[in-house]
Amino acid sequence: MPAVYVRNRLRAATVWGLEALVRRSEPAYERQAVLHVAARPWDPAPCGAANAVAHPDVGGLWFMRQAVPPAAVAAIRALVEAAVSAPRNRGVHAQVEAAGREVAALLEAASKQPAGSEAFIEAHEQAAVAMRRRDALRAAAAQLPAPPPPKRTPREWEWYEFEPGRWMAPMLAHPADGGIASLAARRRHLSNFEVFGDAPVDEWLCLASLQEGTAAGSAERRGCEWLRWLQRELPRRLPCVGAVDEPLAVFHQLQYLQRGCAISAHVDAPTPPADVVATLSLGTGLHDTVRVGSARVRLRPGDLYAIAGPARWEETHEVHPSTSDRLSLTVRFASQSELQNC
Ligand SMILES: O=C(O)CCC(=O)C(=O)O
Ligand SMILES: [Fe+2]
Predict the structure, then answer these.
(1) Which among 188, 194, 147 is positioned nearest to 170, based on CA atoms?
(2) pLDDT band at 251 (very low <50, low <70, confident <90, very high)
(3) Is the CB of 328 inside a 6 Å radius of any atom of ligand 1?
(4) Is the CB of 306 within 6 Å of ligand 1?
(5) ipTM entry
(6) Residue 326 confidence class, pLDDT cut points 50, 70, 90
(7) Are residues 118 and 221 in the same domain?
(8) Coil, strand, or helix at residue 307?
């Protein structure tokens, strides 16, 4: 529906414009680095399905054309469709949560400025404005009945709307194929991420439970099997995962980006632990586009890219707006010893 695309593009452009204005008044801000990163298209020559290619310049950027075939894309989509439902409109309650996240981010940014500096005062002013807005929304929400709790079970989830048009759902990897088996380690490393609405890990989707709940021979069962195949095969087929000492699949992140929405330039946080972040595109259109460092990559459904080393830690990456909705699956890999020791 073009209206959805246009609405999302306009919203993104407004946010982008406001951010640019605010940042223009920050003398120390590295404007160029965030507002515009020059990038060249990277379209590796076909090298056979599910074979990995490294980018010649961007260290740690890998690509796999057709990491999984179209039948797998269809099966994984069927699984996600069956297990994850559209987020309900939670109105002002959702706005309160978003405003709370904004306050936390602004306070964190403020704490990084030298005390007493102009940037410090300005950052605290911005945080104060956001706090007043959050409190006004809270007061409005208190007048309304509480919303029903979101559906969060190992077999069924309601997408969590992290940003407008950007929906997230977490899923535990299968322990029989290199997923984290220990309950304590799961709780220690995977609890309370804001991108998943702070859902406790015990309420995450769970690939093993999902597989048990699907009928033999169904598309959903085949979707589960393909996800297990990815957990098993990526360490063998992707050299950057193979280079990790005893790689474990930390978890699967499902993400649905509505047409016209983008994910702005960022570096993934150090937690959850991940030496390699691998993303499989299951987009519903012909292709979608991501940028990693100076490389712009077109992904067709079934293509996968991965970031490790410099591409993971030193370069930003982003997802450009697409004219069709985009489902993606991100698997993070970390070393078993790292997960046990911290
Ligand atoms: O979906 C993608 O291609 C990447 C998503 C991403 O960068 C993130 O969720 O941090
Ligand atoms: Fe990311």
Answers:
(1) 194
(2) very high
(3) yes
(4) no
(5) 0.99
(6) very high
(7) no
(8) strand
Residue pair 296/315 in contact (Cβ under 8 Å)? The answer is: no
Please report the pLDDT score of residue 143 as a whole number: 92
- Cα separation, 223 vs 226, in Å, equals 5
Instruction: Note whether 177 and 250 are within 8 A (CB).
Output: no
Question: 11-18 long-range contacts, Cβ below 8 Å, gap at least 24?
Answer: 11/164, 11/165, 12/260, 12/261, 12/262, 12/321, 16/264
* 105 found inside a domain: yes
As a whole number of angstroms, the distance between CA 314 and CA 77 comes to: 32
**Mutate which of 263, 303, 304, 307 to test ligand 1's pocket (most atoms within 8 Å of Cβ)?**
263
Coil/strand/helix, residue 102: helix
Give the CATH number, domain containing residue 192.
2.60.120.590
Spatial distance between the Cα atoms of 274 and 219, rounded to a whole number of angstroms: 30
Judged against a pLDDT cut of 90, whether residue 97 lies above it is answered with: no
User: How many angstroms is it from 254 CA to the middle of ligand 1?
Assistant: 10
Cα dist from 115 to 28, 111, 128, 129, 236, whole Å: 15, 8, 16, 19, 49
Q: Are residues 241 and 272 in the same domain?
A: yes
Rounded Cα distance between 22 and 8, Å, is 21
Better pLDDT: 7 or 262: 262
Residue-level pLDDT at 283? 84
Distance 134 CA to ligand 1 centre (A): 27
Examine the domain organization and report whether 122 and 239 are in the same domain. Answer: no
CA distance 301 to 249: 22
The answer as to whether 13 is a domain residue is no
Q: Print the domain residue range for 173.
A: 37-88+150-341
What's the sign of the alpha-carbon dihedral 280, 195, 223, 182?
Answer: positive
Report the distance separating Cα 173 and Cα 191, nearest Å. Answer: 15
d(CA 268, CA 311): 10
- Segment 210-229 shows an average pLDDT of 97
pLDDT grade, residue 58 (50/70/90)?
A: very high
Which residue do the tokens 């949560």 mark? 97
Counting the structural domains of the chain, the total is: 2
DSSP letter (8 states) at residue 294: T
Q: Are residues 104 and 246 in the same domain?
A: no
For residues 173 and 211, membership in a common domain is answered with: yes
